[in-house]
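Materials and Methods. Structural model of Interleukin-1. The 269-residue sequence of Interleukin-1 from Falco tinnunculus was retrieved and submitted for structure prediction as follows.
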Amino acid sequence: MAFVPDLDTLESSSLNEETFYGPNGLCPQKKSRLDLEATSPGVDIQVMVTKAQPAKTFRQAAVLVVAVTKLLKQPMHKDFADSDLGAFLDDIFEPVSFQQIKSSHAGAPVYRYTRSQSFDIFDIDQKCFVLESPTQLVALHLQGPSAGRKVKLNIALYRPRLSQGGPGTWQMPVALGIKGYQLYLSCVMSGAEPMLQLEEADIKRDIESVELTRFIFYRVDSLPEKTTRFESAAFPGWFICTSLQPHQPVGITNQPDQVNIATYKLIRH
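The predicted structure was written out as tokens:
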């Protein structure tokens, strides 16, 4: 905002006093006519006042002068440190507020398909997987002629990712299919918890969609025991499991090997 004082008013008031603009506005001060005429004879004057924060700026400048004076009076044997600035810099400079915004970008996972392998699978209680209906997989003990009912897993292998297991373990993304069928195990949310199911799908390709992550499991092999677990990629901490009782559906659990069996042995064809 600009303010231009009337020249007649300025000249009449200047007969007895000189007007200054200080931090708090007009500051009239007495000054002799002789001095005034000697310094500004017949000169048109325009004063431009910009609305800002002069009082605060003047106070900051004063604090800076006082602070520097104090520093000069300190004993010379003491080295100047960054901590010496803390006492007065907050008064000199305007505080700057920052707003921290947390954001994340979750891109679609990419699983690069490499090849497929066939395996027989047994839990550590020697139960086999049996396809009892078009969409129902159960685990039970098989002997003699009935052993032909067991299913073989067609495991689609994807490029390994960085291992997160402990010493002696490694992880590989896989999709678990039933050999001879286009059926693959998937992990989906049902109510409050995930559930395991069989779906018809074509998984022998790269997986680049979040939606298809339900078919991906991390094969976690324990090399010393030569055993394997399958952890859901869509629901970390949930593992494919069988019941301690025979002829129960193959499911998924977040408490592996406690009230169920989540450890398997694979025999490659």
